[in-house]
Description:
Elements: H1 2-12, H2 18-21, H3 25-30, H4 46-54, E1 61-65, E2 92-93, H5 98-102, H6 106-121, E3 125-130, H7 132-137, H8 141-152, E4 155-159, H9 168-182, E5 196-202, H10 209-218, E6 222-228, H11 233-237, E7 244-247, H12 250-264, E8 268-270, H13 276-292, H14 298-318, H15 322-325, E9 329-333, H16 338-347, E10 352-357, H17 363-373, E11 379-380, H18 385-393, E12 399-402, H19 407-412, E13 417-419, H20 430-445, H21 449-454, H22 458-468, H23 475-485
Parallel strand pairs: 1-2, 1-3, 3-4, 5-6, 5-7, 7-8, 9-10, 9-12, 10-11, 12-13
Amino acid sequence: MSSLSAxxxxxxxxxxCDKNRNxxxxxxxxxxxxxxxxxxxxxxxAFDGAKxxxxxxxxVAHLVHGPLACEGNSxxxxxxxxxxxxxxxxxxxxxLAALDIVMGQGERKLFKAIREIKEAHAxxxxxxxxTCVTALIGDDIxxxxxxxxxxxxxxxxxxxVPGLAGSKNLGNKLAGEALLExxxxxxxxxxxxxxxxxxxxxxxxxxxxxxxxxxxxRLGIRVRACIxxxxxxxxxxxxxxxxxxxxxxxxxxxxxGRKMEERWDxxxxxxxxxxxxxxxxxxRNIAELLVxxxxxxxILDRTETLIAQEEAIAWKKLEAYRxxxxxxxxxxxxxxxxxxxxxxxxxEIGIEIVGTSVKKSTLEDKERIxxxxxxxxxxxxxxxxxxxxxxxxxxxxxxxxxxxRTQFIALKAKTPWLDINQERQHPYAGYDGMVELVRxxxxxxxxxxxxxxRDPAPWDRQADVKDELPGxxxxxxxxxxxxxxxGPTAGDFGEC
Length: 496
């Protein structure tokens, strides 16, 4: 665990983070994440964060060294899509039981599992994940992986990120460290070119990256490695020969981009493929970085031509939705890159943002939101379920965009809801993705079901009609009428 502690301290001391640079040495060691509450899930553990970053590498076998419950179900559990191999969606675990732990059979069982995977599937690499149990009993997965790699002639990568190490976001960053230490730079490509780039922090949720890659192909730009979305091990291993990189989610992998720039002189910028303007700006930045690294300047002209063509097509499609969505109010309950990129995308077509969550956003993300909304009152760190429900039931928003965990709040408030997180079924990146996002919002808001669920129930309507019929007034209404129309009493005339 001493090496793990050193890695955690190194991740916390992140010079590429403006907020972290302004801290003193003691504050940097504490990191940016709030300490976990004992007994609380806190949105996922470090092991979960590591699996999120590494599992979309599609031709790799992902082996969890620990009890069965730590693995769960890998099949379609996050929404990342693959254009080829499906091995990454198969669950592999050593399934440690109480007797294995007591008898010290963990390392032996791990070595046997690696051999069985090699014989049955012959993957180019096996990623081995430690868990809380194996970390506590002291299994040396790094030594086992090194020995197995030598024995079986394949890459066996230790991912020493047990859940007890910290939060999910810390696990994201430690997974990037594992790639830097054991994978990236281990293969020399024979086809490196001046237009090779890396895309970092792109998970290809619902196939989103497939809407962007054709644009890069038309510009003659080759994606050397997309980490981790729809990646192959050989691509990640040779990612150090790219000329430039785009960081999609700095919250997860800022340390990977910064260290690749330091080691292999690969400049990177943070951008977004959500929205028309942000997509165009991302393509321009990629082209400019490549020119700075020696590419032909003609790529700048090709980029502007492509942007003009695609923007014209997208805006023409969006014009049909503008009258229907102009002034509609959206509550965005998500985080990370979506907290500002989706905000910018929606404001482009006249949608009003009444609030956006910044719980998982970096300081840079928050600054972007302030620039877009011109008001930080629409930003909230965390909104309890009762406050979300109150806001929606009072019709302060026409629709909520969030993850699946909060959909039932919107449904209880009889408010349209659209999934914007990893479980979604539609891709929203790029020009076509923006049109699809607007189309889905329009379908959700104008779905006739909302008028039906907001109407009184049939039995309530019947009761109202019954009260209005002659001779069928309720008891309270009858008493009120009797008091109102009763004749004068003796007291009304005074004493005689």
